[in-house]
């Protein structure tokens, strides 16, 4: 009787240059070959996946970066996971450095919590585990019915600050809104630097007015009790924009998890420049940099934008030399190795607190 050899393979879920490059960096660090598969689009835009080798009884890691066409990338991941499931793979683990739709993790108006829907789809397709990095909200882990390892990019970004920013001791960590203060505080404490918070920025996405809770009630013809009169909540009034903390004559380093629409960052940079900051850096894990982001950054007061390679952004770098990349393939490769060998993941979370 032939007993299948237990092992693991690493596949790339799409054939884009960025995903293939990240997959090759990871496999080189692991000392294994990239799995043979073909992922392409049919003439009618349907996704087709063809796995070129046997995966029976093996643990499979699928690396999927999320390019601009988010929905196609999701379908590639789902179809590949299902193909491996039906090919009798033992475990199917998704390595998704940037988890898509992570901003849609709360109910807005009369919409849906898309992160929960995507988590259910991934489980149904056959995934048994996920490795990701810096989820937009850590509570998203609770949407999954299987383990989720939420790695951190902060050690790599902090190392970049220490090695690549001259005179970083004269820097101050800035949160572009009170909501980002917790992340900024973590950076400030680790680098032994001061903290500043920009207060007064419009928070349209968090507005209760856009939540549907102020919709007028339906008029009904009733003869009974018309209901209780509930106390009316006082409307919010946005205060004037202020900077809490002294940034005069300092290097300002704005930290966040995602940089996509850069309008808020550009406005924050202008405010910091007015308050006397002489250099402005932005540090973020996921550089989505959609639409006109490269042009806006190039024309702004921002000196440098530093992001990791969790999301492909080579085109944006060609458009804007201010964008720099930090490689995080090392921690992804180590996570794969530890999961396959059944080793503890605690080593990857050394000195990481719940609030980080």
Automatic annotation (TrEMBL):
Pfam families: Pribosyl_synth, Pribosyltran_N. CDD domains: PRTases_typeI. GO terms for cellular component: cytoplasm; ribose phosphate diphosphokinase complex. It comes from the Eukaryota. The keyword Isomerase does not apply. InterPro entries: Pribosyltran_N, PRTase-like, PRTase_dom, Rib-P_diPkinase. Residues 16-126 form the Ribose-phosphate pyrophosphokinase N-terminal domain. GO terms for molecular function: ATP binding; magnesium ion binding; ribose phosphate diphosphokinase activity. Keywords: Nucleotide biosynthesis. Gene3D superfamilies: 3.40.50.2020. GO terms for biological process: 5-phosphoribose 1-diphosphate biosynthetic process; purine nucleotide biosynthetic process. Belongs to the ribose-phosphate pyrophosphokinase family. PANTHER family: PHOSPHORIBOSYL PYROPHOSPHATE SYNTHASE-ASSOCIATED PROTEIN 1, RIBOSE-PHOSPHATE DIPHOSPHOKINASE FAMILY MEMBER. Seems to play a negative regulatory role in 5-phosphoribose 1-diphosphate synthesis. This is Phosphoribosyl pyrophosphate synthase-associated protein 1 isoform X2.
